[in-house]
Amino acid sequence: MEHGLDENNKDNTEKKYTENKKNEEKTNKKDIREEDHNKTRKKEEISLKEHNKPKFDLKLKNFLSRLFEKNYKILLVITISLMLLNIAVIGVHYAVTGDIVNKGIDIKGGVSITINKDINPDDTKLYLKQAFPKSDIRINTILSSGKVIAVTIEATDVSEKELLEKIKDKVAISENDYVVESVGTALGSSFFRQTVIALVAAFILMAIVVLITFRNFYPSFFVMLCAAADMLATWAVVVLSGMRLSSAGVAAFLMMVGYSIDTDILLTTRVLKHKEGSLHERIMQAMKTGVTMSLTGAAATLIAYFATPSPALKEIMFILTTGLLFDIIFTWGQNATILRWYLERKENMVR
Question: Looking at residue 346, which CATH number applies to its domain?
């Protein structure tokens, strides 16, 4: 009797186990069907979004994707050639003038007189050039709401007294109409040396931080190489534009050290530390974010360039806008391609 009850209990247990197993299988199948359905819906939504996008956007996206996937080494050749061209521009300027950049009076030495009147800058410059043929003279206008509110006259190799006398002979001004600033040649040269040392020190310290962050020499070196290329390109544009670099411009280059590295760190972090998707997909995802960052920053600095009447702020905004635009070229045309080539080569060596 007891044996019969045990058999019945055993049969009931097996039946319950079988039923539970079937229910679990049904639930799993249902979950799988729902998951497949959700994936299908997501694909359809993505497809619909892609279909609704402008054809130009799709063509540009496909072109960039193909370029970075199959012909990315061409970008490396272009960016390296551009970097060498920038070095040549700076080198030629140094050979001709003896300076790596046109210096303003605050880092070279000279006299600056700001006149709070609307005077004719061309006539005044011609007059002063005739009076001081060996002096380097530059006149900048300060605008507000489209109107000239002041004029700044900068001159080297001339004394404050001589320059002021000649200006008074040309323009009727009182002591309340002008402000004079004078910087000695030795002081200006000393200041320029100190700012260059500060720039190099900032670059070296940033390199150390990047190396500590990634703990890998080659990717860290690629980041700093890209930042150096960005700085050289912007420096070459400043030389070609004829702009006189002042202390404000040096400050802009110091800011550029950080601006040019942030997108490189974004790229390197996404490629090295994230494992989702292929190497090409990770680069393209980082590129989407990085280019948006750079274009947003460039748009903001460009607006500020046209909005501000201050020559110092204009100089800063010009340098930052130029640097941010070059950062797009060198981060995604140079750093991304070198990094990809390095990782693919490393993977092939492991195999």
Answer: 1.20.1640.10
* Residue-level pLDDT at 300: 95
Of the given ranges (15-29, 62-76, 209-223), which has the lowest mean pLDDT? 15-29
Tally of domains within the chain: 2
The residue behind tokens 């544009």 is 237
Task: Note whether 91 and 238 are same-domain residues.
Answer: yes
Distance CA 14, CA 80 (A): 73
127 and 228 housed in the same domain: no
> What is the rounded distance in angstroms from the CA atom of residue 177 to the CA atom of residue 173?
6
* CA pair distance 155, 129, nearest whole angstrom: 10
88: containing domain = 61-102+187-350
Q: How far apart are CA 120 and CA 175, in angstroms?
A: 19
Strands 137-144 and 178-183: unpaired
Is residue 82 within 8 Å of 167, Cβ to Cβ?
Answer: no
DSSP conformation letters of 207-250: HHHHHHHH--HHHHHHHHHHHHHHHHHHHHHHHHHTPPB-HHHH
Contact criterion met (CB below 8 Å) for 126 and 163:
no
Using CA atoms, how far residue 122 sits from 40, 132, 250, in Å, is 69, 15, 28
For residue 245 the two structure tokens come to 């670099």
pLDDT, averaged across the chain: 80
**36-45, 180-189, 225-234: least confidently modelled range:** 36-45
CB atoms near residue 297 (< 10 Å): 19
Radius of gyration in angstroms for the set of CA atoms belonging to the chain, rounded to a whole number = 32
User: 328, 305 in Cβ contact below 8 A?
Assistant: no
Over the stretch 142-170, which tens digit does the pLDDT of each residue have? 777 777 778 888 888 788 888 888 888 88
Please indicate, yes or no, whether the overall pTM of this predicted structure exceeds 0.90: no
CB atoms under 10 Å from CB of 104, counted, come to: 27
β-partners of residue 182 are: 111
- Checking if the pLDDT of 94 tops 90, the result is yes
Higher-pLDDT residue of 267 and 72 is 267
Which H helix or E strand runs over 267?
helix 247-273
